[in-house]
Queue: 2 jobs
Job 1
Amino acid sequence: MKRWVLCGAGLVCAAAVLAVGYGYLLGKRDLSGWRKNIQEAPGPEDLAKSKAENAALKKKFEALGPKGVYIVVDTGANSFYLKKGAEIVRQGLVSTGSGDILPDPSGKRQWVFDTPRGEYAVKSKVENPYWVKPDWAFIEEGEPIPKNKDDRVVSGELGDYALGFGSGYFLHGTLYTRLLGRNVTHGCVRIGDEDLKFLFKSSSIGTKIFIY
Amino acid sequence: MRRPLFLLWLVLIGFVATVFCAPQEDPTSTYLKNKFLKQEYVLAKAPGFYFLFDLRNKRIELKSKGIVLRTWEPKRVRFWGNPVPFRSLALTRKTALTLPQRKIIKPGDEETTPKLQTKPGEFELEALEIKDMPRIFALELEDVANISVVGKEKGVKKFWSLLKWHIGMPLKTLKLHHKKRAMSFIQISFDDQKEGQALYWALTEGIKGLIWFPNGKLGIG
């Protein structure tokens, strides 16, 4: 009986070794395909054409990129960069979306507090902005939603400047400067006073904003 | 008399060296670059972000409109399987053992609303942050390529990972050949695991990108 078990185990081991070995050989053959893939030898005509096209493409890429300064926001690192070409003009900390979910107790809607990612542009520039509190701000605090619009207006909360980039999202100031560098907002991008002032002065309507 | 002759020799040697040692243009690399730029231009023209993974130079870039937004430089890159098709691939799925969970705010509950009065670093925020992202995960690209990001390996973990790669990959190859499917496997690791977490954060499902191998020798990795 013991002999049969040992024989069986030996056969299984041998089959496993063979399978791995065969798979390895097949894999090696596949890998040689990577080499073939890159060794497409071009003819002299192809080469001349490639060279000309590469130069044209380089220009096309330059035309695609933003003209002048642009803003990059890294929501993971909670930092911003004001850039011109590849050069960083200014960088600093920000606070971006917490990623939390707030369900409406009525069950009809919910909010996800993410900072939207993608390519945007400055659509509005506001000095001394005031905040019109949306429904979620009252729901989050467990307060009743006011019927009068004036009861929603809060001043001083957004700092000295705000740069709107659409759908109610802004790059704005903050009272909670200690939280810069953390994900705490409801989707807007909070920036420290000095950085915000610099961004406000450096950007204009149409300045590109890249948020990732 | 000897001095001008010496100078003449020096100039002659310099000339010969310049002619023969000047960097020669590699036709394959120019041709490949052209193919690559054409593919990238299609991605750059489209709205949104895209990624480029240069396997040879171990460099991943997140780009938009041709400008680099963020760069990652993995410490180690291994690859196996069929060559990655030279076309843009969409990230169809991110998988990990434990996926980051969003916190649900209970309206009016102090416990779930951010604690604003303390200093950063002294408290845990009720938020989805980069530190909540997985350190070990896989990026599935249209069922044709799989990029796995593994954590920093040392000692037994490193040995286990090597074993898994050198035994697991041939077995996977065998299975794929049996099913007549072609697939590429890429494994990367970072010195700083926060970089891996940042990659998970930045690459959202649906993003398109190019994986390419500029002209160079390939190995098993």
Note: Chain B touches chain A through 70 residues (CB under 8 Å).
Job 2
Amino acid sequence: MRTYGVFLALLGMLVAVGFLLGTTPRDAYKAPAEEIDPDVDGGAALSDARAPEAGATAPMEAAAPIVPSNKLRLAVLSWELAAPIAGMDPAMVEATVLSVPQGVETRLARGGDDTEGADLAVVPLAEFISMYDRLRALEPSVVAIAGYSHGKEELTAPGDAAAPKAGETVGTSGEAAATMLSIYALDFMRTDVSKVKLVSDPADVANAAWVTGPHAATKKRIVLSSADASRLLPAVIIAPRRTREAKKADLVKFVAAWFEGTARVRGNAPGVAKELEARKAPLFSGASEKPQGALAIVERLGQIEWTTPQDNTDAFGITESKVMHVDDLMTLSWRLLRTAGVIAASTPAQLPITKDIVAEAAKVTPPPPGDAPKAPAELMDDAGAPKGLNVLLTRRYDDLDEATLLADIAQTARLFDHGIVRVTTRGGDKASRTLVSKARKESLTERIFPGNVALGTAAAALEVCVAP
Amino acid sequence: MTDDDDDIKPVKKKVALKPKSKSAPPRFQVANRVVKLLALAVGAFISVVGWMSIFGLLIDSGIVRFVLALLPTIGVGLVIVDRVLKRFNVEDRGGAMLDVYAVFLMVQAVLFVVLGGVTHGAFTKEGDHYAKSGSRGLARAAYLLGGKSPSFPDEPAGGASGAADAGAGDAGKAAR
């Protein structure tokens, strides 16, 4: 009898508990985030990540995943840079598109486990260098090149303007990429960029002869644009160390999907622009800023030259090529921005570049059908010399140091990968041709020709030209 | 005290429970064991989480909360079992002990669930403790008892998948 009684009592109470728990209405509740204890488990990975001696390519097996997640949160600086995301799987990524770099910094600092944070970001390289010092604790690193700016930034000046001298002002829109373009051009022209005043106040900008900013911001003569220096201003995908280690597989998938997305943008820019304009959730978070109209987005999409996996493996030095390597570009950018006083920190001993993500992503991404490179012969006249070129920039050398000159020629030819580089040396046409021959062998490009600059007291001159 | 006093001391009578007249059918015995085990597991879990929630209003340390929660769950239970077994003269002491203990735990569990209006806040705070320590399963269970449908920071809203996934790993993390 006792057995039956106890059985019925227990069964009744079990049913009652199940019924009450099952039928009680439950309110939505936001649980707090996990607090990482630095002494145990994932905390060890965090403290490892903060070790100053750890390099960008340190062994990754040692760090354990901290919080498992299969969805990456992404912060993108501008809608046009978000275009390759439009066709991605919403289960893989959630993007927040912002218009100011500070917003990207804040999201990266919050981290991807925060609904208002980010695991990675897409920003211009110059912006990344500008924000690097503030994000140093996160150990952010460039994991892929998203694309190259192609005409968005311009440096303008009145037709008769001479290169600015020390103490003169250069107006800038404040965007790091535009500032970088102007500093590069001034440095190329041998202007001491540490003595040039960069101003961004609209009244000062209006009075400045040289102004750098977005396309069509001024009506002055365009001295140089990022369409000319087509490898100078890349947009990069950056990821803090925690994302690179704890979410490496997701990151590789994302970069591979990015490459597929760029092919989609090339194939259907108007469709992608409409998708961006619609800000489709959940792919784009509600915190994204309102985009401009589809037409404006289409115009901006034309100002980006998207990269392929091959471009990336070439630029990261994974495959052997003579293109501008990302580490050389970062070193150049960092040096110029530091010299001009735009950033406070000098170039780090170990550049924040991680190669393995792009190497793995390139393996799983089929190469897209690319445009054939323009043959140099199209720019030549019958005698094999460049015809009717516009000279963009000229650099004069006081001393003829062949090694320095060859290095400059190679760098210039790589940065202006649609342009022509002309060299004039003191020894006359024969000496110039000898140097050109050497430079072509070193740079593996035929876009180097002897020039005809009146040297005066200079020992040599280097010109960057483009076809009209 | 004299021997006479001892003689007049009333002697407690032990009530003899009637022996089983006949054994229960085999199917019922299986069902009985299943229900008893289920009651012990569910009762113990809800009781421990419930008492941890109450102590959690004052104490943050997971280990201290857990040890304190064992006192009313196991300690008091053992005292009650002991008293009941002394009061009644039962032949199957092991079975009776389990019966009494299972009923005791389930009564506590029902009380914690029925008194939801009082205990919801404590359960929710307990869920927060588990969530912060990374024990999602336990956190979901505590939030379920607290009448909450949780969403965690790195998962989409409405991602609650029930309370049954509280595992051994979670228990270890919660103790931390």
Note: Chain A touches chain B through 38 residues (CB under 8 Å).
